[in-house]
Amino acid sequence: MGEKGGNAGGYLVDVNAFLKKQRDIKKYVPVVAKKQIRILLNSSIYKYKGVDLAVAENCMNLITGYSGVGKSTLLREYFPQYFNSYLYINQKPLLGNKNSCVATVLDLSNKISELYAKKHKKDKKFFSNLTGNDGMCPVCLGAGYIEYGGDYHQSMRVECRECEGTGFNKNLKKYKIKGKSIFDVWKMTLDEAIDFFEDIDKSITKVCITASEIMLGHLQIGQATATLSGGENIRIKIMKASKSTAKVIGVDEPFKGLSNIEIDAVANYLNRIREKGKTLIVIDHSTGVEDYFSQWIQIENIDNRLIGKQFK
Ligand SMILES: [Zn+2]
After folding, report:
1. How far is the centre of ligand 1, averaged over its atoms, from the C-alpha of 52 (Å)?
2. Residues 293, 184 share a domain
3. What strands, in cross-sheet order, belong to the sheet with 60-64?
4. 239 domain residue, yes or no
5. Are 85 and 106 contained in the same domain?
6. Does residue 234 fall inside a structural domain?
7. pLDDT category, 227, cuts 50, 70, 90?
8. Cα 177 to ligand 1 centroid, rounded to whole Å
């Protein structure tokens, strides 16, 4: 099956060509660890009494350990106690309101509305599908779907026919840029958007290129965030983390379920974040990923203390 996810994936590819590409990946050489940060904590969380391990500063650190040993607890609960400037990223859905889509989480929706407003000399609200704005679909109030059911029954979502799931007022279909309305843009994938925005807006193009590099190019601009997989959620969060001021970033299973090509893309992107002076601490089980890391730490639960043993 194909190498990409979502709508772009699932097609048949030449198996030999695909396997060759998988084998031909040339992994970067991780930097040599210079300084260790020893994390020694004696606070109790759940059944644990504390932690003792060292991570390499300004490096890619890999943490492994048997299932249920407490790796996520370490990243989610203990590290914020130790590091003043820390960001934790996992596969959980992105926070947002019910109208949030790929464009809103990647901060593109405002920019796109502004482009159309400027071109057609209208107020930005005229091209915004946010609830209460002029460009909102009057039937679904900008959500793009209608929800049936309520407190006692499981609710069901049906795409809004009026706005074709975009959340926009259909009057906006007649306003175009390069022959495309905002409806058309909402249905574009991020890969398609690279070509469309290339000569219109550099900042939008840049976000789309980055998304494509981290294997998210198949996502639709107007795709609801509720439909994203855990792997897609975590990669969007990683994209956003590149702008974070946190000095230490903990990432919980970014490679889970990915092909070698995708793992390589995500590891390269994480390493680029590291190059900005950050320390990365990653939990993962995928085979072969240790090559991307300067330091590999195996976690063990010894007398309810999480102890790290260095492999590399
Ligand atoms: Zn609608």
Report:
1. 54
2. no
3. 36-41, 50-56, 305-310, 295-302, 60-64, 279-283, 248-252, 86-89
4. no
5. no
6. no
7. confident
8. 22
The CATH number given to whatever domain includes residue 28 is 3.40.50.300
Give the CATH number for residue 210.
1.20.1580.10
CA of 75 to the centre of ligand 1 (A): 41
Percent of the chain surpassing pLDDT 70: 90
Distance 159 CA to ligand 1 centre (A): 8
- Could you read off the pLDDT of 150-203 as tens digits, one per residue? 666 677 888 999 999 999 999 999 999 999 999 999 999 999 999 999 999 999
Range of the domain at 161: 102-226
Q: What's the CA-to-centroid distance between 169 and ligand 1, angstroms? A: 7
Same domain, 153 and 252: no
Q: How far apart are the CA of 125 and the centre of ligand 1, in A? A: 16
Interval between CA 160 and ligand 1 midpoint (Å): 5
Q: Please give the model's pTM, rounded to 2 decimal places.
A: 0.85
Residue 279 lies in a domain: yes
